[in-house]
Amino acid sequence: LGLKVRLLRHGKEPPTKSSTSPLPLLAPEVTLQDWDEDAAAEAAAGYPPGTWLVFPTEGAADASEVDWHGVTQLVLIESRWGHAKAMASAPGLAELPAMRLSEGAVASRFWRTASHRLDGEQGLLSTAECLHQILSVRAASLGEAAGSSGRLDDLLLFFALRLRLVLEAYGRDPRRCCPWCTEAERRRRVFAGNASCWQAKAACGAEAAEEVAAPGGIAV
Asked: Is the pTM of this model over 0.85?
């Protein structure tokens, strides 16, 4: 790959659903590390010079504009969006220079629909797809030979095989359209249910406040 890659996986990210689990098998430069107390302490102690965080923080540089000659290690976060933002702000990670992909650079083929979207974006890439795209940008910026693109495509080998299995499973079930439609509908129902719960809690809170404020009400 030409540099080191450190993948930090949040504890609530199931390894069986992760897109990054096979990556250390495909490239020895890739290290997958669970985000625990030891990993947080290592980050807080500081990573070597030349380490960049791949995350769309405010002020993150476009990957195509980075001077890649000085980049020796990439740090990527494998997590749901809400957890990822908290990890990116952790001591040691927050101080790293950050880069991001250009807006609309590529559409994701991940079968797990992103639960959050960024302004102006259609969705978020899986971590494996993001690494592939970042390294492709690096290769182009450094003027590497065209053959390097095929070598980088190998990083998506297990991703592509797993996607094929998912699509075949959906193809055998006439009740389902595709993984993206099914997952999007599932998340829509989850969000609708959560919204109903929040509204119910807000209504209960409002009723309780009215009872306390009413004449003869008992403040607790």
From this structure: no
DSSP assigned state of 215: T
Distance, in Å, from the CA atom of 128 to the CA atom of 50, rounded to the nearest integer, reads 21
- Helix (H) / strand (E) element for 77: namely strand 73-78
**Per DSSP, what are the bridge partners of residue 4?**
73
Q: What is the DSSP letter of 92?
A: T
Residue 120's SS3 state is coil
String of b and e for 14-44 (b: at least 16 CB within 10 Å)?
eeeebbbbbbeebbeebebeebeeebbeebe
What is the sign of the dihedral through the CA atoms of 32, 36, 42 and 43?
A: positive
The pLDDT tens digits of the residues spanning 188-199 come to: 776 677 677 777
In angstroms and rounded to an integer, the radius of gyration of the C-alpha atoms of the chain is 22
Of 50-59, 126-135, 146-155, minimum mean pLDDT range: 146-155
> What is the helix (H) or strand (E) element at residue 100, kind and residue range?
strand 98-100
Q: How far apart are CA 162 and CA 112, in angstroms?
A: 12
Contact yes or no for 105/120 (Cβ under 8 A): no
Angle between helices 157-171 and 179-213 (to 10 degrees): 90
* Distance separating alpha carbons of residues 109 and 161, to the nearest angstrom: 12
